[in-house]
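#help-structures

NK: newbie question. if I give both the sequence and a SMILES, will the prediction place the ligand too? trying with 2-acetamido-2-deoxy-beta-D-glucopyranose
OV: yes, paste both and it writes out the complex. here, I ran yours:
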Amino acid sequence: MAWLQIFVVFLLCVCSAVVGEPCTNPAKRRAWHTLSNADKLAYINAELCLMQKPARLGLPGAKTRFDELQAIHQLQAYATHFVGSFLPFHRLMMHAHESALRSECGYTGYQPYWHEQIDAGKFSRSVLLDATYGFGGDGSRTTGCITNGPFVNYTNSLGPGYEVTSHCINRRISDLASMGSSQAQVDACLAMKDFETAWPCIEGQPHSGGHAGVGGQMQNGVSSPGDPLFYLHHTWLDKVFWDWQARDRAVRVSRIAGTNIGPDFAPGFPPRPASIPKPTGADGDPGRVTTMGHVLNMYGNGPNKTIADVMDIQGDFLCYEYVEP
Ligand SMILES: *[C@@H]1O[C@H](CO)[C@@H](O)[C@H](O)[C@H]1NC(C)=O
Ligand SMILES: *[C@@H]1O[C@H](CO)[C@@H](O)[C@H](O)[C@H]1NC(C)=O
Ligand SMILES: [Cu+2]
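OV: that's the protein plus ligand as structure tokens.
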């Protein structure tokens, strides 16, 4: 009977290779507020490493690997906001960033998130803006440039908006605007019953709370990933999305909706120049509605995936969980 056992083991191996490894040991994404100083520095140093690595994908204007990740967003801002793919797209982008930190810069942790409820209404006093164990503080009132912290000398090549210019990381913190990230705003979205209402709720406030609360480039709908805080903000937003999905998991990982054609112009989004193609909505969808087969384009920063691939954060492709702060 030994041959039968060997055959069964062989079949199991082949089958699990075909369907992918099940997510049995999800990576832990933690709140920045709960990280040790050593963990914070490990993350910051990995980001600085991406800022020092030369670009390799040939994307317009990008000089570093950090810029190339920003380019994913700059090149398709109108195709990925105000559309059904908004949340899955940013989920995959966070994964591409986390993977780059790990595979190219020796980072052994996972993407942390900014639990913004803690700081809502008082972003200016957030520990995330610490000059030593954080991302540096507010912009100068004269130049807009951040004046301290580990990223003070970074010359960003993309932005503002669609422009390709050399500039500092700039901010203009607004405690008032950061109220949009409050627990009450989050709870209002978590209470939504279907994707059609949960997605625009999440994309409105809390999404805008983090962007407008930080201000400067973070408030630019096109070039916002030029501020490294973008990744902490959007990973938190991904947590809000997941917390909503987890309330009715089987249904909410298997259904998507919403238009796949964004507006021609949106507040906070500079007008799309002729060099950037108008989104056609044709990325794998048969019609005008976002479907599970919709392709999320990472422009070579990690693999393209479909929405179906990323709807479950503990599925065949993604494998992580959010640790509550
Ligand atoms: C930024 O550049 C200045 C001037 O060269 C230097 O003194 C400072 O240490 C640099 N700061 C960082 C965080 O790299
Ligand atoms: C990713 O998707 C875009 C748009 O569908 C496509 O042009 C590109 O070739 C794809 N990239 C890869 C690596 O498959
Ligand atoms: Cu975005």
